[in-house]
From TrEMBL:
The keyword Mitochondrion does not apply. Transmembrane segments: none annotated. This is SKP1-like protein. Residues 136-183 form the SKP1 component dimerisation domain. Belongs to the SKP1 family. Involved in ubiquitination and subsequent proteasomal degradation of target proteins. Together with CUL1, RBX1 and a F-box protein, it forms a SCF E3 ubiquitin ligase complex. The functional specificity of this complex depends on the type of F-box protein. In the SCF complex, it serves as an adapter that links the F-box protein to CUL1. Part of a SCF (SKP1-cullin-F-box) protein ligase complex. GO terms for biological process: jasmonic acid mediated signaling pathway; protein ubiquitination; ubiquitin-dependent protein catabolic process. Residues 27-91 form the SKP1 component POZ domain. Pathway: Protein modification; protein ubiquitination. Keywords: Ubl conjugation pathway.
Length: 185
């Protein structure tokens, strides 16, 4: 996404602060959404989750980030709120992001399973935000969810599910099938 694009759409949520009793001693950073919301989060939590924000925080010459610790993002408030919910849940009390994949009976796994039970637009907005923010865990989760939605479906069922218009002519489609026949074996 370009800096002027907006990831996510929907209603405005009130500003939230990721807070716990330990936030008082943490360095905080404000994230500014594309629709004007601000979110205050612990630097180590968001920096540990997002490679792009970590890079922004490390760049000393970026005076806006260095002095104000305000980072503008091309992500809408409702989607950024969900992203921060994910970060908050996946961070331990010291702000370090959990690195191990949760097991099937882990409460974190159950959280992830419920987290992606959203409408299709929200799921793709979360995926785009995770991609832009370079949040590998969230990107993997959203991509795996989309892949699971495609599993066992025919081409036509996938097109219907994801509202994909087939713009191939019958001849073009036959040519693609012929060139990629190994896919249907």
């Amino acid at each position: 996404p370009t800096p002027t694009s907006k990831i996510g759409r929907g209603e405005i949520h009130p500003t939230i602060t990721m807070s716990s009793s330990t936030n008082k001693n943490r360095k905080m950073v404000r994230l500014h959404s594309s629709d004007g919301e601000e979110f205050e989060v612990a630097e180590e939590a968001i920096g540990g989750a997002s490679a792009i924000i970590k890079g922004m925080l490390e760049e000393e010459e970026d005076s806006m980030v260095a002095t104000n610790k305000v980072i503008p993002l091309p992500v809408t408030g409702p989607i950024l709120s969900r992203v921060l919910e994910y970060v908050n849940r996946h961070s331990d009390e010291d702000g370090a992001l959990y690195r191990d994949a949760p097991t099937a009976d882990d409460p974190l796994r159950r959280f992830d399973d419920q987290f992606v039970q959203v409408d299709q637009d929200t799921l793709f907005d979360l995926m785009a935000a995770a991609n832009y923010l370079e949040m590998q865990g969230l990107l993997d989760l959203t991509c795996r969810t989309v892949a699971d939605q495609m599993l066992g479906k025919t081409t036509d069922e996938i097109r219907t599910h994801f509202y994909i218009h087939n713009d191939y002519t019958a001849d073009e489609e036959e040519e693609v099938r012929r060139e990629n026949s190994w896919c249907w074996e």
